[in-house]
Amino acid sequence: MPSVDLFAEDQAHELFVSALLRRILGRADLHVRSAVGGHGRALTELKTYQRLVLRGAAGLVRPDLLIVIIDANCQGPVKAKNAIQREIVAEAAGETVIACPDPHIERWFFADPEVFARIIGVDQQPGRRKCERSWYKALLKEAVRRAGHFPTMGGVEFAEELVWEMDLHRAGRNEPSLGTLIDGVSAFATRAQR
Length: 194
Prior knowledge:
It is a single chain. It contains eight helices and four strands; from the N terminus they run βαβαβαβααααα. By secondary structure, it is of the alpha/beta class. It folds into two domains: 130 residues, 3-Layer(aba) Sandwich (Rossmann fold); 55 residues, no CATH class. Strands 2-1-3-4 form a four-stranded parallel sheet, with helices on both faces. The longest helix has 18 residues. The model has no long low-confidence stretch (mean pLDDT 94).
């Protein structure tokens, strides 16, 4: 069973990506290492975590796979990924997959519109990309409300159901930054089975 450490910017990232990892990898020894505090805090904790892994401190061991997921925040996924890549210490993990939702994680919840409509109960397209900070967060929450649900966590509480039902090929095509994560984890899963 592969060991996987997940660095996530916040709870929405943690819920969505954890569900995706369980779906693609099946069984994995998953550890969420950072799930609150936003972009800057996640990067700071990533640096600290890697130093601890290299020293073998705090019971940390080198994972087979390190997933780092931090929003692109309107700078574009390539630029955001390159900034994270500069912070990665190769010796701290067997493999690393970096994904940067473009512009924010909540857009990924709409990646398969058919599944979104079936699970949530309302048709909601994400529309053209917008760089407004809370645009997709508000869109998700409002769609959940319109469907007659009480959004206890702003709609991210549906992450598990959406991820398990979505057509990963369609979702990755609709949201290329999600496709990067799906492809990276799938490639790791294939290598891990050998």
